[in-house]
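Recap for those who missed Tuesday's class. We walked through two folding examples back to back. For each one, the amino acid string is listed first and its predicted C-alpha cells come directly after. Nothing is annotated here on purpose, so try labeling regions yourself before you check the end of the notes.
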Amino acid sequence: MPHVPVLPRGTLDPLLARVLVLEAGEQRVALVTLDLGRPFGAASLESLRAAAKRNRAGYSNLLVVASHTHAGPLVKDEYPGEGTWEAATLEKIGTAIEDAQRSSQAVRVVQVMESPPSATTGAR
C-alpha cells in the first residue's frame, strides 16, 4: 500500500513569539523571534508592518527571525485560494510589538572592556 502524506490539522503546541523593542532618540527597532521553520515571506512581512501600524506601533526597522523548528506549521510565501493561520498570527504579533513598546523602560547601557590575560604572562 503506497504512503499518502497527510497534512496535519489542529494544534498540538502553541506557536511562540517574543518581541523586543529598542529605541534611541527617533530610531526604534522591533526584534521579533518566532517558533517557526523559517521567517514569513515578503508579502506576509508587509502585512506585519501594516498590522503594527494599525496598532500604532511605529518603528524604524523590523527584524524577524525564526528558530528553524520542524514542528511548526508550513510557512508559504503565498496561500492562494485558502484561509490562513498566518493572517491571525501577524495581527497578534503586531499587537505584541505595540505592547512591548508601551511597556518599555528607560535603561542606561554601559560598556566595560577588560583586557584578557596576555599569552606572554600566562595564566597561573
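Example two. Treat it independently of the first, because the proteins are unrelated.
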Amino acid sequence: MVSENLFKGEEQGIMHRCYRPFGLWVPAAVLCLLAFLVVPAQTRRNNRASSGSGEPGIVDIRQIDFRNFSYGVNGRTYRLRDGFYAENVAAGTRWELGMVDGPFYGDLTGDGKDEAVFVLSHGAPEAVQSAEARIYTLRGGRAVLISTLAVKEAVSCVLDHYVRVADGLVIVERVYGKPAGCDYNEITEYRWNGSVFAQIGASTRTPCRCM
C-alpha cells in the first residue's frame, strides 16, 4: 500500500512537471512518456529488493546436518550419506567412513552457544578400525572444526558410546590394546581453555567393555 501511494505521488509530480505551454507540448510529452515507463520499473525493482525472501541463515549448529557432511581424513575429503561412506580401494578391499556416535550438543566454549561432538570411525570393515572424536563450533553460519581427539587406533573394540557432553566438559572413553583386542579403557575429561581442549585431572582406567 505504501509503495502504491508513493507511485501515485510520483505520477502526480510527473504530471505537474509535464505541463508546458502549447509550443513545448511535443518534446514535453516525449519526456513524460519516458518518465512513466521508468518510474514503475524502478518501483518494481525496489519492491523486489525490499521484500526478497532469501534462504534463512544458519544461526544454530543443530541446523547443520553432520550425517550428510564432508570430512577430511588422511588428506582426502569424503562426504557422508546418512552417516556413511564406502569405496573399493583395491580388488576385494573396501574402505569405510562412518559416524558411530553422536552428535551430542552443549556449550563447550563458554560463549552461550552449543558446539557439536561426534565420533567418526574409518578403516576396512574386515579389519580393525580407528576412531576419533571431532568437535565443531559455528562461525559465520558455517561449521568449523576446533578439535580432534583420538578415541582408538587400530583396536578391535566397539563401544556403545565413546564421548559424552556434560557441564561444559567433553568426556572421552578411549580404547587401548592390540589389533586382536582391547586391554583396557580410559576415561578422560577435557575443558576448553580459550584455544584448545585441555585435559582436566588424571584419566580413569576401567576394564574393557567392548560390545
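Answers for example two:
The helical segments are 2-18, 25-50.
The radius of gyration is 31 Å.
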